[in-house]
Amino acid sequence: MNVLAIFAHPDDLSFFCSGTLAKWAEQGHKIYALCVTSGNVGTLRTDLKKEDVAEMREKELRAANEILGVKETLILGYPDGGFINAPELREKLIYYVRKYKADRVVTFDPWVAYEVHPDHVVVGRMAAEAAAFAAFPLLYPEQIRSGVEPYACSEVWFMGLLGHPPNCFVDISQTLEKKVKASLKFEATLTLLARLFAPNIDPTRVTSEDLKILSQHADTLLRFMASTIGEKVKLKAAEAFFVQRTLPGHFDNFQQIMLEMLGNPPEPPKIC
Any idea which fold 2-271 has? Predict the structure, then answer.
């Protein structure tokens, strides 16, 4: 199976689905990670330029993905913070769904309530559309003329904050350590936690000693999240997703939507 994870910022995967990606990689599936932006404004520090942050985030992402067993990491380099041309991005993402013959796309849920970050919304929506539309041979035919064939992606796995109750839980008890190690590679993740767990640490001037303290907090948080999600389905550690199978140009969810519209509860979640 070929898995294409499409995300907005270098540290997005680590919190939400890195345990699952590591598990799939261990099972022999090919994992491709596509980061849309450079993450070049993702810091509270005042001593860095955008170019410095982008360079740092790329190194962190590649180091984290090496831990997870990602086969290839791509960074499209769009500016961070809401300046993404959506139609242009969709065309590029369809190209990569076709190029890597992605059977499964993992991305953000663009329909989650109160999501204020435009990058998450745009990337999630365009990734979902790319998965559903990559099978049409008359869409972006110049890609096909260049040798990239249409490809029918089977599923979209929405990660992280969800606009719908999760319908799939993945047991990551055997890959939780990889998730923690990969997540701790990101200085931005750690410094942004300062306001939550260490108000005495100034996130604009984080020292090496501060990073050690923040790493301990991050470690605790990641383990707590995994165990809390797992408790819902009697697993020691888990990650949750809302999975939709795809049809050309659609999700294969007509029956589900009808049942919910008529007041019937959704199916119980599965251990995937």
Answer: Rossmann fold (3.40.50)
N- to C-terminal Cα separation, the chain: 14
Closest CA to 184 of 7, 18, 49: 18
Tell me which of 212 and 12 has the higher pLDDT: 12
* 195 has pLDDT over 80: no
Quick one: which of 31, 38, 130, 21 has its CA closest to 75? 38
Q: The tokens of 105 are what?
A: 């796309």
- Residue 6 is predicted with a pLDDT of 98
CA 218 – CA 251 distance, rounded (Å): 36
- What does R_g of the chain's alpha carbons equal in angstroms? 19
DSSP letter string, 176-222: HHHHHHHHTT-HHHHHHTHHHH-TTS-TTS--HHHHHHHHHHHHHHH
Please report which residue ranges of the chain form alpha helices under DSSP H.
12-16, 18-26, 50-68, 86-99, 118-133, 141-145, 176-183, 187-192, 194-197, 208-231, 254-261
Q: Are 62 and 25 in contact (CB under 8 A)?
A: no
> Residue 73, SS3?
strand
Write the pLDDT tens digit of every residue in 146-181: 999 999 999 999 999 999 999 999 999 999 999 999
Distances (CA, A) of 225 to 93, 218, 228, 234, 264: 30, 10, 5, 14, 29
Name the residue ranges covered by the structural domains of the chain: 2-271
- Give the global pTM: 0.92
